[in-house]
Amino acid sequence: MGQVLAVGLATVDNIVLVDRYPDRDERVLAIDNARSVGGPATVAAMTMARLGIEVSLSTVIGRDAAGDFVLDILNQEGVDTELVERSNGMTSQSTIVVSHSESSRAIMVKPERVAPRKPLQNFPQWVHVDHFGAEVIKSWGLVRGNGPKLSIDIGYPIEGVRARDFDLYVPSEKITDNLDTASDDQNIVVISHGDRGSAYFDGITKGRAPAFEIDALSTLGAGDVFHGALVATQIWQMPIKEAVTFANAVAALSCRALDGYSKVPSRQETLDFIKMMEK
Predict the structure, then answer these.
(1) Nearest Cα to 51, choosing from 246, 260, 278, 279?
(2) What is the Cα 127 distance to its own chain's centre?
């Protein structure tokens, strides 16, 4: 199972880049388009694989052409797919319109929420989950302090999910801007503020790591990439300031592509980029 198990949704994303969003009943020409694999935990897993982490993914996809596409990409990216299950349902798909002029996107998704089975083998060092994966590991009976360390990518409030339930708690700024819970919960809290950088506290060291300026094509998936890179830094036992700076750099470099993962850099490319930007 490697060093990390990612648990959550896997989707096929159909992405269209436009200069601006169309008005009602208006037709606009696309600048570019792409088909990619998405899902917060899935993109995080592919990011970790790019960075040299041994990572497995636990998810459910359909026995359809979209599911074949997901499986092919995961295997190409070096993600262990032994725990990827196939069901008789459809693979989750989304349509994403990215506006170049507004630096934003609109996402329409049809999720197929089927929980994967609990693995029979022992868990690895870390388990990373997205919003759906949090529900899955709860049904497995997996709790903090009784097995692997737990990490969560949480973009919106989920009933019953608390900061103290995770060793690495990474909420969006829409959920909280409170870092101080790390002291009582004895965990790491990192809050990403997009192009304003990321704030962090591990109960000892508190600070902010600035974002990196880059000629971005799309920020789609950058948050998922950030989370994957942050989990990788925990495997490497990086100090918190360096860890968040590294994750910011990986996320920034991923924005060179329209999809969420094809331009995710290697570990060495990221370190070289940080060194160059510090000059």
Answers:
(1) 246
(2) 13
Q: What would the two tokens of residue 167 be?
A: 């060793």
User: Which structural domain, as residue segments, surrounds residue 97?
Assistant: 4-19+30-277
Instruction: Dump pLDDT digits (tens) for 63-96.
Output: 999 999 999 999 999 999 999 999 998 898 888 8
Handedness of CA 9, 10, 16, 18 (dihedral sign): positive
CB of 179 closer than 8 Å to CB of 193: no
pTM reported for the whole predicted model: 0.94
Q: What whole-number distance in Å separates Cα of residue 155 and Cα of residue 62? A: 25
- Calculate what percentage of the chain has a pLDDT beyond 70: 100
pLDDT digits (tens, 9 = 90+) for 180-214: 999 999 999 999 888 889 999 999 999 999 999 98
Q: What is the largest CA-CA distance in the chain?
A: 55
Give Cα 208 to chain centroid, integer Å.
Answer: 20
CATH number, domain of 14, equals 3.40.1190.20
DSSP class of 217: S
Number of domains the chain is built from: 1
